[in-house]
Design brief:
Layout lengths: L11 H11 L1 H4 E3 L5 E3 L7 H13 L21 E3 L7 H7 L7 E3 L9 H9 L2 H6 L2 E3 L7 H6 L15 E3 L7 H7 L7 E3 L20 E3 L10 H10 L5 E3 L13 H12 L10 E3 L8 H9 L6 E3 L18 E3 L4 H10 L4 H15 L7 H13 L4 H15 L9 H17 L4 H11 L2 H6 L4 H12 L5 H17 L2 H8 L2 H17 L4 H13 L4 H9 L2 H11 L4 H15 L11 H12 L5 H15 L9 H15 L28 H17 L1 H10 L2 H10 L5 H20 L16
Parallel strand pairs: 3-4, 4-5, 5-6, 6-7, 7-8, 8-9, 9-10, 10-11, 11-12
Antiparallel strand pairs: 1-2
Helix pairs in contact: 1-3, 9-10, 12-13, 13-15, 14-15, 14-16, 15-17, 16-17, 17-20, 19-20, 20-23, 22-23, 22-25, 23-26, 25-26, 26-28, 27-28, 27-29, 28-29, 28-30, 29-30, 30-31, 30-33, 31-33, 32-33
């Protein structure tokens, strides 16, 4: 039974919109000002127009050029628009979005010079927007009314947008005068003034009968006594949700004292103050007593949420009896996850929650995909926060270690690994972050089964490896690289193999291990990586020789004569070099070839070792014009190839797989000596018997079936070779009869499987 992703497959609408996003350049013409215009468009369903804009923003392709398609207000009618974090200028915004009859606009954290004043004045210029707009988010922007007026613009306040019900001005330069203007809005229900420059909240009394939600996180500039603040809160008769939390990491005892005292008075005050409150968030506040919390909750039966993260009182026993009350805190995993859900945009609280989550998941033995999703979301929301990524990467490791990853949705693991790679890119010099990412990546299941950018991962790990020598981490890094290299496409492998720095790094590890004669997994992984790196990659093979790898491998071959697993990997790479005609001359060393010949002849040597030894000799002996040593040695090689191969027993285990059979083509020509032909057909027969479905179509596609037929039909072909050729052709024929279409795909990679 296959595990299905919890989110399910993408909808048809999502797939179509993604295709439109990918094809914008071909679907559009360019206006004189450089903006795009759809060449032709039907009248989009209104919701689909919103979704297209949101897709473009999410895929980071919404800018001054592409937003131009929304100037067409008849076919693309926007109502709920998000341009969050997009680089837009004031002019592009005015031309593309302001003509629409918007109900909602999220312009949080936009870049490109667009200010809050530009947005408000632009929206107010459309009479329909003045009354239609209900929700506006300008989180993270400069309002900058002064610049607008200096450039000849008219100061149009928020109060001109008479339909506003929700206004988010967190992390802005909002001041007291602007707040007074805002509070005259007749329908204002939700207001977020977190991290602003407000000094007085008295203006809120103007909307005391409509304001249902007030978010005032981290109000550092407030200049009001605690008693006066509590009085203002008490007059907000319609208030259901109050957030008066604080960033506990960036405030000392003296800075937050008035706010803490305000909270104390609110909690210990009369039950008639905010009696209808549904949620209260005081996370990060200090000097809160459990008794005050208990009294406050008991006197407000409608309370369903209480924010107590980093207050020290979230573990109060009283909460176990409050089944309908959600709490953010650190007492258990439910409280911590609730904090990660509610505080996604608040770095201080995400950081605090992750610290506690790490402790709670250190010994977890059950898959928790929902928790992993929260961790990844926190990393994505705060890409530059070292504190968050340091703890989050450790949490990712806890949640995906051992067999936990195999129970996670593949799409979630894919986004998780992608985020780990982004973290490695963003914090290249932080050793612990890099270590955490490497620990999480070092999972056979993740590396083999999860789709992600393998090329980027290999480059990041090899770069990290160059500056770290910790034995444990070195082993993991080399293991990751050895697997990733085998997963690269031909094009990626070609690019990867050009970098001589990579070759030097891996050879340095081999030399380091060989100098002390150690046999460990690090050495084996490094040899495997080098083997795969040079497979059908002449540039990499040349780099190997230029980095004096040949001399090193000759030493390893002699030093590790009792270690077949090491010898096979060494000989496997030498096979790759032997396949490159212009590099064969570098292998024409009498001592080296005689040593390889001795391995071929020795019946006590593992068949796998003899197989690779035979491959090197077969390739070198196949070109008599390029043979530079004594002809007698070549004759001996050819005779011993035939004699030795006929003694080999069939191998049940897979020890090699092939990217293609192209290197075998020269060896299967009817003019080749029998020993050369025999090694080639024995090798093909070996992999075909072990994995017929994998190689049958590749033989057909690359023309080897025709070569085998010609070889089997030729009168001078040795009977041993004819027998193996016929057997291969029979396997291919049987597979073609019984195989389904999905099995008729060619193998793309050769990798050592040892």
């Amino acid at each position: 039974m296959l595990l299905q992703d919890a989110e399910g497959p993408p909808t048809l609408c999502d797939l179509c919109l993604a295709q439109v996003c990918r094809s914008l350049s071909s679907l559009c013409s360019m206006r004189a000002d450089g903006s795009m215009s759809l060449i032709w468009a039907p009248v989009f369903p209104q919701e689909t127009a919103d979704q297209l804009l949101n897709h473009m923003a999410a895929k980071e392709i919404l800018n001054d050029t592409t937003v131009g398609i929304f100037r067409n207000c008849k076919e693309l009618r926007l109502r709920r628009a998000s341009i969050r974090s997009c680089p837009l200028s004031a002019e592009a915004f005015h031309l593309a979005l302001c003509p629409h009859r918007l109900l909602e606009l999220d312009a949080s954290w936009v870049s490109g010079g667009l200010t809050g004043a530009d947005i408000v004045s632009g929206l107010a210029s459309n009479p329909e927007c003045r009354s239609s707009l209900q929700r506006l988010s300008l989180n993270g922007l400069r309002l900058d009314w002064e610049s607008l007026e200096a450039n000849g613009g008219i100061h149009v306040g928020f109060s001109s947008l008479r339909g506003l019900r929700m206004l988010n001005l967190a992390n802005t330069d909002l001041n007291d005068a602007a707040l007074e203007d805002i509070c005259t809005l007749p329908h204002l229900e939700t207001l977020d003034i977190s991290c602003s420059a407000i000094s007085k909240l008295t203006a809120l009394l103007e909307c005391k009968n409509t304001l249902r939600s007030l978010i005032a996180h981290r109000q550092r500039h407030l200049d009001m006594s605690p008693a006066r603040l509590v009085f203002v809160f008490s007059q907000l008769h319609a208030l259901k949700h109050l957030d008066f939390s604080e960033d506990h990491f960036s405030v000392d005892d003296s800075d937050g004292r008035d706010g803490d005292e305000t909270v104390r008075q609110l909690l210990e005050g009369s039950p008639q103050v905010l009696p209808s409150l549904v949620s209260l968030d005081i996370s990060g506040r200090k000097r809160i007593s459990e008794a005050a919390i208990r009294s406050f909750v008991e006197s407000r039966s409608g309370l369903v949420f209480l924010g107590l993260l980093a207050t020290g009182v979230s573990s109060c026993d009283f909460f176990s009896t409050q089944k309908n009350l959600k709490v953010t805190g650190e007492a258990d995993e439910n409280q911590v996850c609730e904090a990660l859900r509610r505080y996604r945009d608040r770095e201080c609280f995400v950081r605090e929650a992750l610290v506690h989550l790490y402790s709670l998941t250190t010994d977890t033995d059950k898959p928790q995909p929902d928790v992993l999703k929260l961790v990844v979301s926190g990393m994505q929301r705060h890409p530059t926060s070292l504190h968050i990524h340091l703890v989050a990467t450790a949490c990712v490791f806890n949640l995906t270690t051992q067999d936990l990853a195999e129970a996670m949705p593949i799409s979630l693991l894919s986004s998780t690994v992608t985020q780990l790679l982004n973290t490695m890119k963003n914090f290249p010099n932080h050793q612990q972050v890099q270590k955490n990412c490497l620990l999480a990546l070092c999972s056979d299941y993740i590396l083999q089964e999860v789709p992600f950018d393998k090329y980027l991962a290999a480059m990041l790990v090899i770069n990290w490896l160059s500056s770290h020598e910790d034995p444990t981490l070195q082993r993991m890094a080399v293991a990751v690289i050895s697997i990733l290299v085998a997963k690269l496409s031909t094009e990626e492998m070609a690019q990867f193999s050009k970098d001589i720095f990579i070759m030097k790094q891996l050879l340095a590890i081999v030399q380091q291990k060989a100098m002390v004669g150690v046999v460990d997994s690090t050495l084996k992984f490094a040899l495997s990586a080098l083997w795969n790196l040079t497979d059908e990659m002449p540039v990499a093979a040349r780099n190997f020789i230029e980095c004096r790898g040949l001399e090193l491998y000759e030493e390893v071959l002699e030093s590790y004569y009792t270690e077949p697993s090491i010898q096979q990997k060494v000989l496997g790479l030498l096979n790759n070099i032997a396949e490159v005609e212009e590099l064969q001359v570098d292998l024409m060393e009498e001592d080296l070839l005689e040593h390889i010949l001795s391995l071929l002849q020795d019946s006590q040597v593992d068949v796998g070792v003899r197989y690779f030894a035979g491959g090197i000799l077969a390739h070198l002996a196949s070109r008599p014009d390029a043979w530079t040593l004594e002809n007698e040695l070549r004759s001996t090689v050819l005779k011993q190839l035939h004699d030795s191969i006929m003694t080999w027993t069939h191998l049940e285990r897979e020890m090699v797989s092939y990217r293609s059979f192209h290197p075998f083509c020269p060896l299967l020509q009817t003019c080749q000596p029998a020993g050369v032909q025999l090694w080639a057909v024995w090798a093909i027969h070996l992999v075909c018997t072990q994995n017929t479905s994998h190689y049958s179509s590749m033989l057909e596609k690359e023309g080897l079936t025709e070569l085998l037929k010609a070889l089997a039909a030729h009168p001078s072909t040795h009977s041993d070779i004819k027998g193996l050729s016929d057997s291969i052709l029979s396997m291919v024929e049987q597979h073609q009869i019984h195989a389904g279409p999905e099995d008729r795909t060619a193998c793309r990679h050769r990798e050592c499987l040892l």
